């Protein structure tokens, strides 16, 4: 089932030393950053050979683990790596259920639970209920719940199930978004709302599905709606009172995009005035997408945030000649003002709905003999990019799965080399385009372990037929203009879980899965990686070899983000939300009809048998050692 | 015998051609049918009464011209953006047997005109009433609720093989006459 490039080492109980360290670290987290840096270096250097120690997240963006889980990406570097190691390769086979909790909502559960102090917080899909569970009491009873009662009509403009990707915690408050376009701050202790800001308008097709990120007293939020002709934006809301501090659009004039004198893109193709207007047909930028519904990372030393931009709209590329700035790319922005510092476009004039909003992992590594501050991005178009995060220069772009829609990236110009044979257009059926509109990898976030130097990527293996059609723009209705029909990719396995050796730029091992791996993943200092499958299996595999160590069948397919934390009793726990849905699982959560190959923008054709493999659900599972 | 059949065939075709379906070339009103009570449940306290019918429903239902117009409008008004080609997506599937707000022409017409609370927009101000009836007729046809001789065919261009009625006869496949 897997291609193994590394010999499997003898299984060792590496947990004890690292666990002692983690406990020490938990005592004082707020000391000098120099101390933290030294500590981080020691941690990664102590237990691993030198080659792996060469790559690590910047200490300021990935402070020592305190056993909590306060944001979906674990830390600002977005490593989703936990230093907890009580659960390790040797004992993970003994994991058992500690408690479960029904969210009461049978839609796609994409959220990561949060753990702060003695409490766990969960956001459900629409109607976006927030639950606080008291971990210090037996069975983790509900402490409070908050129902925002979003507008039910919002369900009709959410492109791909009514998901929510989680909340964020900062300064005693829980911040989350609702499908109908509100950002809400709750008192983490009582669940009482502190402020509620309405920033998205469902009548033009705007929704919010992303998890916010809190940086320096600002709550960063972006909108969804790339399939509805919605103009994308990222807003910074004041964490204190919720007022909008700045808005950065994904298309339009430079002043709207917050492009000013500080903007220094690395490549010629991104230089010029008002490219967000001039690279579109007249006025098309106003309904051109470039939404931000994915992940944001933050580098405190550079004071930069990094976020991607979504696909241009409509999907039919004939209707929008030009590079369609600033869609399907990535921005580095000043964390205080939002001013753009650099931009790089993954897919200029995107042909296949390759949103550029996936996670970016911030790492410091040696590149061709020199230390570089990089950003690693497994991108939807099929390439794993390593960018210099200070300049936006592409250091490497390597396909991490089957790609035929393009022929690589020109490292001189930075431009993706599109394959003319796979170019779509009005009235033209193009077959066997890989990857699909859902990408080699969609939103499902990967994890990086500094102990192994491997990036663990949950992803898809699908191809598609596309046919461009004409489309009318009617505000608040879909603006796609493409018939799509997806099929399994080469090999027939529709999903894969790839461990990518970042320094060698090749896979260390690959696990094949029958369905797309639509869940996130977490990796620990116990050298265990957790992820879920759409059949409902929650799996633990060895971070070194990929060997399956343990699995548990949950009640529904898993598309959520696993987390791990230290409970009030001092022991390590692992949590995951089970409940199939999302774009890949819409056939089940939306009860779609598989006889129509184009249902759910073509995804249903590749998932015809999912209704026989699982049913809708919404249950939290928490595991621990006996 | 064979000759007699050959002579009968054009005659039959001519007779069939005489029975053309009636077509309203000039719709009565672009503004709508006015108030139209359309219950979305069969539960009625005090006993079930016959549900009200709209005289337009009968003239549009199962009418080949109106259904093919409905198919065209289904794409033009972006219905297909949510309901795909009947299998659903953002909106529910329309080709299955499940009808959340009723399967009658009147119910479907009311759903398109007035919208429904869980995401179906109200198109009453956007689409002329007769075209809503045409859409309703096509939506009923998607689920196989119209005679196959009148219902529009699916689009074949995305399919990997031609529709069954255009495939070579399975009985003679691989054999030369």
From TrEMBL, chain A:
Residues the entry annotates as binding pyrroloquinoline quinone: 110, 165, 209
Source species of the chain: Mesorhizobium ciceri biovar biserrulae (strain HAMBI 2942 / LMG 23838 / WSM1271)
Cofactor note (record): Binds 1 Ca(2+) ion per subunit.
Lineage of the species this protein comes from: Bacteria, Pseudomonadati, Pseudomonadota, Alphaproteobacteria, Hyphomicrobiales
Covalent S-S links between cysteines: 159-160
Domain named Pyrrolo-quinoline quinone repeat: residues: 69-406, 513-574
Keywords linked to the UniProt accession: Calcium, Disulfide bond, Metal-binding, Oxidoreductase, Plasmid, PQQ
Active site: residue positions: 353 (proton acceptor)
Family: Belongs to the bacterial PQQ dehydrogenase family.
Binding site for Ca(2+): 227, 311, 353
Gene3D superfamilies, alphabetized: Quinoprotein alcohol dehydrogenase-like superfamily (2.140.10.10)
SUPFAM superfamilies the UniProt entry points to: Quinoprotein alcohol dehydrogenase-like (SSF50998)
Protein name per the record: PQQ-dependent dehydrogenase, methanol/ethanol family
Cofactor list: Ca(2+); pyrroloquinoline quinone
Domain of life: Bacteria
GO cellular component: membrane
InterPro entries, per database record: PQQ_b-propeller_rpt, PQQ_MeOH/EtOH_DH, PQQ_rpt_dom, Quinoprotein_ADH-like_sf
MF (Gene Ontology): calcium ion binding; oxidoreductase activity, acting on CH-OH group of donors
UniProtKB/TrEMBL annotation, chain B:
Domain Cytochrome c: residue ranges: 65-143
Biased composition (Polar residues): 27-41
Gene Ontology molecular function: any one: electron transfer activity
Region annotation Disordered: where it falls in the sequence: 24-56, 144-177
SUPFAM superfamilies the UniProt entry points to: Cytochrome c (SSF46626)
Basic and acidic residues bias (residue ranges): 154-167
Keyword Ribonucleoprotein: no
Keywords: Electron transport, Heme, Iron, Metal-binding, Plasmid, Respiratory chain, Transport
Cofactor(s), names only, from the UniProt record: heme c
Domain of life: Bacteria
Protein's recorded name: Cytochrome c class I
Native organism: Mesorhizobium ciceri biovar biserrulae (strain HAMBI 2942 / LMG 23838 / WSM1271)
Highest classification ranks of the organism: Bacteria, Pseudomonadati, Pseudomonadota, Alphaproteobacteria, Hyphomicrobiales
């Amino acid at each position: 089932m897997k291609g193994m490039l590394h010999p499997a080492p003898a299984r060792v109980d590496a947990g004890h030393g690292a666990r002692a360290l983690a406990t020490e670290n938990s005592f004082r987290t707020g000391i000098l950053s120099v101390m933290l840096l030294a500590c981080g270096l020691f941690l990664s250097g102590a237990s691993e050979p030198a080659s792996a120690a060469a790559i690590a997240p910047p200490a300021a963006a990935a402070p020592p683990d305190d056993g909590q889980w306060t944001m979906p990406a674990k830390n600002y570097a977005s490593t989703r790596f936990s230093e907890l190691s009580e659960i390790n390769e040797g004992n993970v086979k003994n994991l058992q259920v500690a408690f479960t909790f029904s969210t009461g909502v049978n839609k796609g559960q994409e959220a990561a639970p949060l753990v702060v102090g003695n409490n766990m917080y969960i956001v459900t899909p629409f109607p976006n209920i927030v639950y606080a569970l008291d971990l210090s009491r037996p069975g983790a009873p509900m402490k409070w719940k908050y129902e925002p009662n979003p507008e039910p009509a919002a369900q009709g403009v959410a492109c791909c199930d009514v998901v929510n990707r989680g909340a964020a915690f900062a300064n005693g408050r829980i911040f989350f978004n609702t499908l109908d376009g509100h950002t809400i701050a709750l008192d983490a202790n009582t669940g009482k709302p502190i402020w509620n800001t309405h920033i998205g308008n469902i009548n033009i097709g705007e929704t919010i599905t992303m998890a916010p990120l809190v940086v320096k007293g600002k709550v960063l939020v972006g909108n969804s709606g790339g399939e509805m002709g919605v103009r994308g934006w990222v807003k910074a809301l004041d964490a204190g009172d919720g007022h909008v501090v700045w808005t950065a659009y994904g298309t339009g004039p430079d002043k709207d995009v917050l492009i000013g004198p500080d903007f220094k893109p690395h490549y010629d193709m991104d230089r010029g005035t008002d490219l967000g207007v001039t690279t579109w047909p007249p006025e098309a930028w106003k309904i051109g997408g470039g939404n931000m519904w994915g992940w944001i990372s933050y580098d405190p030393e550079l004071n930069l945030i990094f976020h991607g931009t979504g696909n241009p709209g409509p999907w039919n590329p004939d209707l929008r000649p030009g590079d369609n700035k600033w869609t399907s790319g990535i921005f580095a922005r000043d964390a205080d003002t939002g001013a753009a510092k650099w931009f790089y476009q993954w897919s200029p004039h995107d042909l296949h709905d390759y949103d550029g909003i996936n996670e970016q992992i911030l790492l410091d590594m040696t590149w061709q003999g020199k230390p570089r501050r990089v950003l690693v991005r497994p991108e939807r178009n099929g390439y794993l990019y390593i960018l210099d995060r200070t300049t936006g220069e592409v250091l490497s772009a390597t396909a991490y799965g089957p790609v035929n829609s393009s022929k690589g990236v020109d490292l001189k110009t930075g431009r993706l080399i599109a394959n003319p044979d796979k170019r779509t257009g009005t009235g033209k059926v193009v077959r066997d385009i890989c990857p699909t509109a859902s990408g080699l990898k969609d939103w499902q976030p990967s994890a990086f372990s500094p102990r192994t130097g491997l990036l663990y990527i949950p992803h898809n293996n699908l191809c598609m037929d596309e046919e461009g059609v004409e489309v009318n723009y009617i505000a608040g209705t879909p603006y796609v203009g493409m018939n799509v029909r997806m099929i399994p990719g080469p090999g027939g396995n529709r999903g894969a879980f790839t461990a990518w050796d970042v320094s060698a730029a090749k896979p260390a091992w690959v696990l094949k899965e029958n369905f797309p791996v639509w869940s996130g993943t977490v990796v620990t200092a116990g050298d265990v990686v957790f992820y879920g499958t759409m059949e409902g299996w929650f799996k633990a595999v060895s971070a070194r070899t990929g060997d399956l160590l343990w699995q548990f069948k949950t009640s529904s397919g898993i598309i959520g983000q696993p987390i791990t934390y230290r409970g009030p009793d001092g022991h390590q726990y692992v949590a995951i939300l089970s409940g199939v849905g999302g774009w890949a699982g819409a056939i089940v959560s939306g009860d779609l009809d598989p006889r129509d190959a184009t249902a759910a923008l073509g995804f249903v054709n590749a998932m015809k048998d999912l209704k026989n493999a699982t049913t809708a659900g919404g249950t939290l599972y928490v595991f621990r050692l006996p | 015998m064979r000759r007699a059949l050959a002579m009968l065939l054009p005659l039959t075709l001519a007779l069939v051609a005489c029975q053309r379906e009636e077509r309203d070339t000039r719709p009565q009103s672009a503004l709508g049918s006015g108030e139209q009570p359309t219950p979305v449940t069969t539960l009625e306290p005090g006993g079930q009464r016959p549900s009200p019918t709209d005289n337009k429903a009968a003239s549009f239902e199962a009418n080949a011209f109106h259904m093919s117009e409905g198919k065209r409008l289904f794409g033009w008004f972006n219905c297909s953006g949510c309901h795909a080609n009947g299998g659903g997506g953002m909106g529910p599937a329309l080709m299955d047997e499940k009808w959340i707000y009723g399967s009658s022409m009147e119910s479907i017409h009311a759903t398109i005109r007035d919208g429904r609370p869980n995401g179906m927009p109200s198109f009453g101000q956007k689409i002329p009433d007769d075209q809503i009836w045409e859409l309703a007729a096509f939506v009923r046809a998607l689920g196989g609720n119209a005679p196959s001789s009148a219902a529009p065919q699916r689009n074949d261009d995305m399919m990997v093989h031609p529709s069954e009625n255009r495939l070579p006869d399975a009985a003679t496949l691989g054999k030369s006459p």
